[in-house]
Hints:
By secondary structure, this protein is of the alpha/beta class. The chain is 41% helix and 16% strand. The chain binds adenosine monophosphate (AMP). Adenosine monophosphate binds next to α4 and α5.
Amino acid sequence: MLKTVCLYCGSSDGTSAVYKQASIKMAQVLASAGIGIVYGGAAIGIMGAIADAGLEAGGQVTGVIPRDLVDLEIAHNGLTSLEVVDDMHQRKARMAALADGFIALPGGFGTLEELFEMLTWSQLGFHAKPCSVLDAGGYYEDLLRFLDKQVDAGFVKPAHRALLLAESDPSILLARLQSWTNEAAPKITAQTAGATPSATPDKR
Ligand code: AMP
């Protein structure tokens, strides 16, 4: 059951209003469904917009921000709770542990890095939580095509490609997360992988 969803998103606004509007809608849909939001804790860009939207819709919004970014990304001071951590690794581990599923909204390098870490961990069987993108205004179209190319080129198995859900409509995306079950066999198991990363979120 989805109690909390992690939203990865840009610290910028993007050039098209569509990206921000769809992201705000995603936060509203989650809040209306009584699902808590975890995100990077900033007050700027799409990050700030989804936090404000979630709070205004009556939702619980938790931010996790590294100490060094408190000033740079301007930590949001109106959240349900804000956790200040030591570094980026702690931030990502904490966000991953708090959430039951992951959605990448439009964003930059940081957003992709966070999404692909969770997708990789899903493939490895380190967690069993849904990973997805909100393909607002076709923002992720080219990336999704590239993932298909990775399958064609033999670097990604079709079952692992299927681990990344993509929808342009926030309500439909939430419904897919809620009904998701992990049917893909892990590429390797946690046991055969040897030491599990210390940042590994719990399997749920
Ligand atoms: P961006 O999508 O690049 O605008 O960044 C979104 C969020 O990801 C911001 O809060 C960044 O601080 C964070 N971020 C950027 N680079 C990384 C990274 N290498 N690892 C973890 N988080 C990052």
